[in-house]
TrEMBL record:
This is Phosphotransferase. The keyword Nucleotide-binding applies. Residues 41-240 form the Hexokinase N-terminal domain. It comes from Musa acuminata subsp. malaccensis. InterPro entries: ATPase_NBD, Hexokinase, Hexokinase_BS, Hexokinase_C, Hexokinase_N. Belongs to the hexokinase family. Residues 247-493 form the Hexokinase C-terminal domain.
Amino acid sequence: MGGAGLGLAAACAVATCAIATVMVAHRVRSRRRWGRAVALVREFEEACATSVGRLRQVVDAMAVEMHAGLASEGGSKLRMLLTFIDNLPDGSEEGTYYALDLGGTNFRVLQIQFSGKGSMILTHRVQRQQISQELMTGTREELFNFIASTLKQFVQREDDGIDQIPDVRKDLGFTFSFPVRQLSVSSGLLIKWTKGFSIKDAVGKDVAQCLTEAMLKTGLNMRVAALVNDTVGTLALGHYYDVDTVAAVIIGTGTNACYLERTDAIIKYQGLLTNSGDMVVNMEWGNFWSSHLPRTPYDISLDDESPNRNEQGFEKMISGMYLGEIVRRVLQRMAEESDIFPDAVQNLSVPFVIRTPLMAAMHEDDSPDLREVGKILEDHLKISGVSLKARRLLVRVCDIVTRRAARLAAAGIVGILKKIGRDGSAGVASGRTKGKPRRTVVAVEGGLYVGYSMFREYLNEAVAEILGEEVAPYVCLRVCEDGSGTGAAVLAAAYSSNR
Ligand code: ADP
Ligand code: MG
């Protein structure tokens, strides 16, 4: 080999060496970055831990806050609002009743015919209507005139004479899912608007009266028999089907709960009398807070950047509005500090790009190569080239967020049961007959609970885990869809003046 050849060989060896060094360095860096991503997920998982011990602390905190909220106005972050509902339907309601549902995804008008026995519904007619942006931000007269005229057209179309005597006043259940200070079963003052509504001249007004006036103007002979929110409607419908139902929980875009309380436990309204000695209390539990809740830096930044900072703390860890957003915040940090989502920092920095149903679809991808996760990342988030092991890590993040949410909601439910002596802890003194715990049903409604099976499974599992095997078989969670529509109609039947 000549000198030139030797030189070339040496140069080649140096180059090979350099390439190898670069490759090794790259691999080391990449492994370190991967390690960083794994470490972030591990830290997050630890911060979200919900051991049964911690859940029991949340149970106790919920029961304590319920007491405080019942003791005095403003005594707790739980508002514990009176509803004046003292009798729940039992399946014997009879006749045709109407309902309005305002405050969910769509405005709806319903007509429901109850058979009179055996919790049977004979006919169920619904009309959905969008409320325009102008109506949401206009005047109260415009909104209620629109509602009354929609109702009138619906009644004229659906009222076929069966079961209806002309000129007899019809009863209506009005589900109005905004904060209301209730004055009676059928009246209440609007405290404030939420969900994009902003009609200034309606705040502080009795919304049932606004509707009644509008109905009179259109010539509708109807009466608001019950003014409720969606949670109370769900409890009513649950009780219509099963009289052991004592509480209702909504887990959809937001979350809330209500339950049947003894009036003598409602200390802030001493002397409150009802026929049954009970009253449904609307907890507004989305605003629950306790230092025992496992809070992470991602929850804190989500809250800081929200329009209602320091409010709805429980809701921000549990409900459909937020779960996908918590996942996004974790993924964004992983993208910033590792290279597992190539070029995705920008796409993951858009608030709320990961909606909860999308998160659920990724979480529930059961294909061995997580094909669906890859497809969602590409189609919805414009992130491509994510490795299988990174996709697995992403699914783990979804799992952590959902598991925590479901288990905290479960602790909230057991907190209610504890408050009313149905969790087995009060012993023979309350809630037990013949040495056995009493059968207890909780009605559950909402898109998150109904549509996200992993969430539902985690929640049910946690309720059983907290209660223990002796009591758990006596507690049943029952899906009760459309409490805000059918539930309001059955309440109208229960509180009908014609009954
Ligand atoms: P609302 O709360 O407006 O009355 P729903 O009870 O139907 O409406 O809840 C809708 C919410 O539930 C959605 O905003 C979404 O967050 C959540 N959701 C609905 N379907 C699913 C699903 N399949 N997986 C996960 N979350 C879902
Ligand atoms: Mg709803």
